[in-house]
Amino acid sequence: MAALTTSVVPLTGLRFDTLLVAATSGGDDCATGAGVLLVVQNTDAATKDVTLATPEVVDGDLDVADRTVTVAATTGLTVIPVTDRYRDPSTGRAAITYPGGVTGVKVCVVRTATS
Predict the structure, then answer these.
(1) pTM (2 decimals)?
(2) Would you state the torsion angle of the CA atoms of residues 16, 94, 99, 48, taken in this order, to the nearest 10 degrees?
(3) Where are the alpha helices (DSSP H) in 3-104?
(4) Which of 49, 32, 38, 50 shows the shortest CA–CA distance to 86?
(5) Each residue of 74-101: pLDDT tens digit?
(6) Contact 1/79 with Cβ under 8 angstroms?
């Protein structure tokens, strides 16, 4: 599992297509929080799924379902908010997997500036 670096988007803007890196077949992890976004690019001819693990439980034993986002084939970019709901208490980071494979998938993580 690779740790994705979070780039802060300054108020003057940020070109993030140069920040995209190949998704890791074993999954990636990233920071969570307000304004944190996972940017996914899929250049493959097949749709790809991106799953964010949700470590939360309710009523003490009911798992909250993981969030899976399907990224269309040969698309530009898909942006997925990574709120603290996905924060694993043991690592402090969100776990990301790609159950459909990583061929043609690039990712980066950005966080908006607060002021």
Answers:
(1) 0.93
(2) -30
(3) none
(4) 32
(5) 977 899 999 999 999 999 999 999 998 9
(6) no
